[in-house]
# Entry
Amino acid sequence: MPQTKFILQENDIPTHWYNIVADMPNPPAPVLGPDGKPIGPEALAPIFPMSLIMQEVSGERWIPIPEPVREAYRLYRPSPLFRAHRLEAALGTPAKIYYKYEGISPAGSHKVNTSIPQAYYNKEAGIKRIATETGAGQWGSSMALAGHMFGLEVRVYMVKVSYEQKPFRRSMMHTWGAEVFASPSMETQSGRAALAADPNNPGSLGLAISEAVEDAAHRADTNYALGSVLNHVLLHQTVIGLEAKKQFELAGDYPDMIFAPCGGGSNFGGAAFPFFADKACGRDVRLVAVEPSSCPTLTRGKYAYDFGDTAKLTPMLKMFTLGHDFMPPGIHAGGLRYHGASALVSQLYHEKLIEAVAVPQIATFQAGVTFARAEGIIPAPESNHAIAACIDEALRCKASGEPKTLFFNLSGHGHFDMAAYDKYFSGQLEDFAYPEDALQESLANLPKVEA
# Structure
């Protein structure tokens, strides 16, 4: 029988994270402070431990993974690589389809890959409490879990539309001991100002980040933790791609194309960055970031310096952005509702070293259902974006007869997202292409700094 699962042993868990900066043709653009001038690592010290700050600015190719982190990873890593034989048959494609399944983590998504090291490094630095944000809840539940593992208090500001859509994600956070507030909240000045301007504000990741950063900045025992965007977060996620490369060796195969959802960039970076090392050495592999057409950061945004949050409390990164005060519609892929993309992902896309596509909401759920009926796993709405793009390519292979090898990151399961599937089945979901005039209005408010 053809092999379906490619399994690694616990001693195959990577001993080092891969830092893509070492293989980028150009150095990353500098981080800017409020005055528009480059800042040093010390500027981040009020809200991050120095160990994470040094990872943020490192140019070393390999960063050692502390043994306590590897020990915690053993709860669920290595994650399996699947060959999607049933999906291939359902599509009638000559393409070979593989997927890495990160939904086996305790929190049900890939986000635990960075929450564990972030909790470890903060505990090591003597921090007692973490303030963070979450969109759909995967990051918040992952940070709640990791905080409990390392004895940290955790407060989560959850984007209001997801807070209301996904109550069981809140229950998961509470189970692991975290506090959860709908954002915008009355707990911070940023939240109160947003509610004063619009009492029905549905929230955004940018606004939730403002609340969490403000919270952390006002308490000496508290640091901020971010689930995507920053370099150290994408670094931690590279365990996905590093394991996948070993698993493709077991399969005697190698991907022609890699697809992963892209909001802030940790999902895409984790799956694709380790393969970029091969691309940098001349290997022909296409890396495709897949985003929602309602929040089209890479495909319709502007490559410019911008703040990572709505209240402009964070430093400025050069990234593809829709504007820091962009308010995305309440799509069910809440983890992808962010105005900006990772500076590393953005620079690679700007330099045409990776690709990006945007897909509409209904098509992503159609793809998720097709996948679930073939492979059995019900994917998270975020993961459905990668599935949709991968299926589109598999159907192009069917039309052309090309036997490509396709790989996507199944970043989490959809067990807490069934209300979204119910809306899909009842015809209540809508596609939303963000209006060009509203997009330009948001982009008009970008900070005026030298690009």
Observations:
- The mean pLDDT is 94.
- The domain at 5-10+66-108+233-443 is CATH 3.40.50.1100 (Rossmann fold).
- The first strand starts at residue 5 and ends at 6.
- The CA atoms of residues 26 and 347 lie 9 Å apart.
